[in-house]
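Hi R.,

Here's the chain you asked about this morning:
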Amino acid sequence: MKKPVIAVDIMGGDFGPPVVLPGALAAARSSNIDLLLVGRKEAIELELKQHDCSGVNFEIVHAAEVALMNEQPSDILRRKKDASIQICCRLVKEAKADGFVSAGHSGASVACGMFIIGRVPGVERPALATIIPTEKNPAILLDVGANVDCKAHHLFQFGLMAHPFAQDLLDISSPRIGLLSIGEEEGKGNNLVKESYDLFKLAKNINFVGNVEGRDLFTGDVDVIVSDGFVGNVALKLSEGLAGSLARVLKREIFSSTVTKLGAWLSKSAFKRFSRIVDYAEYGGAPLLGLQNIAIVCHGKSNIKAITNATIMAANYVRKGTNQRLTEAISANEELSRYSKAIKH
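And the predicted structure, written out as tokens:
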């Protein structure tokens, strides 16, 4: 099998080449990946001098511009043709790369992915899927920000797209798919949730288990949680904020007395395991599902470990043919999507 070729936006993220480059190199070395390192050539060459590149097959692709966080995605798409994220997407479009990874402007990644790489036939809105820790195994939450205003057939397609992704990521043959709502019973929720529920009930080849309440996100009883991007992003940021606050409160209480300090020392290995479970870097990035090729959008504050895991994730989905099965899932349920669109129009 041909080695996956992954284009990596070296200029992306809050830290740029000093973090993104070593992360990409580590992924290539550990998972047999060819790299296209996209960014300012002089910056990449300068950073490469700091690292052992033996055993890594890579090519530098010069990009004179960088997508800045204060710029509108539409402006980046129209005016910054030489931005690193645009060039990553063109490399994928031209079949020079099998997918791309970027920790840069997430809005630009979505816009360039949609209009340069293009969508899977039948997909109206690509969705950002993130991996969240639970009491049992990791679960997938989508959409987490790519689409803040959705219709029922959008949520339905999100679930269809997440199905093969969850199979490959979680190694589950029939992932349980739930719809985020304000009650478990059928008929609960706003009109969007109710209409989406009706579509999911009729879907072929997926394991829809009904509504899921916010309190159940982390129980591990559902493998995929579907939401519109507004609610999904709020749920994600609320979870991240709560986890951070709990960790700070716990640390404060642990070091409040000699007895609790001793208990913390005795529980050190358990705390390390817990930190690893809730660390976003363990999961790499958020796949942008629904594009014709693989795209992984990373957190702006991604560290080397996160970039490494995101690049490995991209390569794994190429090897497993995840996108092909996503396309098949959309095609198998095309009539339901068309039916929903007809009702709304």
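The chain has 13 helices and eleven strands.

Let me know if you need anything else.
M.
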